[in-house]
Design a protein that fits this description.
Distance between the termini: 84 Å
Strand order of the largest sheet: 1-2
Shape: extended
Radius of gyration: 23 Å
Number of helices: 10
Strand content: 15-25%
Low-confidence stretches: 1-23
Order of helices and strands: HHHEHEHHHEEHEEHH
CATH superfamily of the largest domain: Cytochrome c-like domain
CATH class of the largest domain: Mainly Alpha
Number of strands: 6
């Protein structure tokens, strides 16, 4: 059970070279919900319940969750562990020494995971969104799980209880004179607690929270930037008309 709680980082916390080993599986576009307070709150709940057992978010304090519409009481009662205080950083409950003994290394911090996994194939959000939705059962692997985005991934499916267990359905196609296998679909071996649509919705919320956590001021920065550009546009028009008025009698 402890191994099943390894969480996101054994896949997400690896190097760009490891990501490139994903075989070029196309990434799905992650939904944009960083302005959706309900989605961010749900994503925070999923993060605490399924990720924070093993992974810290050392650059995020619980009280910063006020920015997504939560009160101190809601944060303390629903999102903190028994010994955590509202001003504490989001630290994993796992013992670092035990983590190293069980997994060979401490699970890495997830504070900026949504930014650090960007590549030419898509954004970091796209990568995480596709990764968490393409796990399948593979008894040849030590964990019993594999992944289409990250073949031979070292971590099991952290959301298997929600998604259930699936097997991939492959078909052979001709590509540049060679026969290749491509994903045709999924066979639901064992149902999860959520329907496929509900699962995708919740993964989208989790990814939105990881995006927000990676840069909580991003929405404010964009909003201020829009107003700055509007101001500069109006100021440029005024300056141009003033210049024309000042020099109109000079040939």
């Amino acid at each position: 059970m402890k191994k099943m709680l390894l969480g996101l980082a054994l896949a997400l916390g690896l190097s760009g070279a490891a990501i490139a080993a994903g075989g070029g599986f196309p990434l799905d576009k992650a939904p944009k919900r960083t302005n959706d307070m309900a989605a961010l709150q749900n994503g925070a709940k999923i993060f605490v319940n399924y990720c924070l057992s093993c992974h810290s978010a050392a650059f995020m304090r619980y009280n910063r969750l006020r920015d997504i519409g939560l009160t101190d009481k809601q944060i303390a009662e629903n999102l903190t562990f028994a010994t955590d205080k509202i001003g504490d950083t989001m630290k994993a409950s796992i013992d670092p020494r035990q983590a190293k003994e069980w997994f060979g290394a401490n699970p890495p911090d997830l504070s900026v995971i949504a930014r650090s996994r960007s590549s030419g194939a898509g954004s970091g959000a796209d990568y995480i969104y596709t990764l968490l939705r393409t796990y399948y059962r593979d008894e040849s692997r030590p964990t019993g799980w594999n992944n289409m985005v990250f073949p031979n991934v070292g971590m099991p499916n952290p959301l298997w209880e929600l998604q259930g267990e699936r097997a991939r359905v492959m078909e052979k196609v001709e590509s540049h004179g060679h026969e290749a296998e491509v994903l045709k679909g999924w066979d639901q071996v064992k149902p999860g607690t959520l329907s496929p649509e509900q699962f995708d919705q919740n993964v989208g919320d989790l990814v939105a929270y990881l995006q927000w956590m990676a840069e909580p001021a991003a929405n404010t920065r964009v909003r201020i930037g829009v107003w700055v550009m509007l101001f500069l546009g109006v100021f440029t028009l005024i300056a141009w008309r003033l210049n024309a008025a000042f020099w109109k009698d000079i040939k």
